[in-house]
Design goal:
The protein is α/β, with parallel strands linked by helices. It has a single domain (about 10-145), classed as Rhodanese-like domain (Oxidized Rhodanese, domain 1), CATH 3.40.250. Helix content is about 25%, strand content about 20%. It contains four helices and nine strands. Helix 4 links the parallel strand 7 (about 90-95) and strand 8 (about 115-120). The chain starts with 10 loop residues before the first strand and ends with a strand.
Length: about 150
């Protein structure tokens, strides 16, 4: 396989499979790349039953929404502090799966080998009424979450 044929990241994974993988593997992390405002007002995945905490690290800094400076360096430091090496599975989640995909690609390019994008994210797509969190995503799947 040439460099051009290598995948940009390990792949896509659904929210239920992500929770199961986090439950099955001690050396795994969930990285929530949404903004601080989203964490505060919409909620965050709650991994306390797994004796874990998600890593909260903005991919895009609010309010300008530019890529957060030193994202990969900060992420690498946080993962190492948790005792994870570059072979540990890292699951990236955002609102709907777009920012988390970009973050998974960036982390893969930095040498983290098992970066997954959590499809449908925390809230999932909008339903027919224009609301998120009802059809797909972490919240709609009934997975544990908390709100401040």
């Amino acid at each position: 396989m040439t460099d051009h044929e290598k995948p940009a990241y390990a792949g896509e994974i659904g929210v239920v499979d992500t929770f199961a993988a986090l439950q099955a593997t001690d050396k795994a992390a969930l990285v929530d790349v949404r903004t601080e405002a989203e964490w505060m007002y919409v909620g965050t995945p709650d991994l306390t039953t797994l004796e874990k905490k998600p890593i909260l690290l903005e991919w895009q800094a609010y309010p300008d929404m530019g890529i957060a400076p030193e994202f990969v360096e900060r992420l690498s430091d946080l993962l190492r502090r948790r005792g994870l090496d570059k072979d540990a599975p890292i699951y990236f989640i955002c609102r709907s799966g777009v920012r988390s995909r970009a973050a998974a690609i960036a982390a893969t390019q930095a040498g983290w080998r098992r970066c997954y994008n959590v499809t449908d994210g925390f809230e999932g797509p909008r339903d027919q009424s224009g609301h998120r969190g009802r059809e797909r995503g972490w919240k709609a799947a009934g997975l544990p979450w908390s709100q401040s």
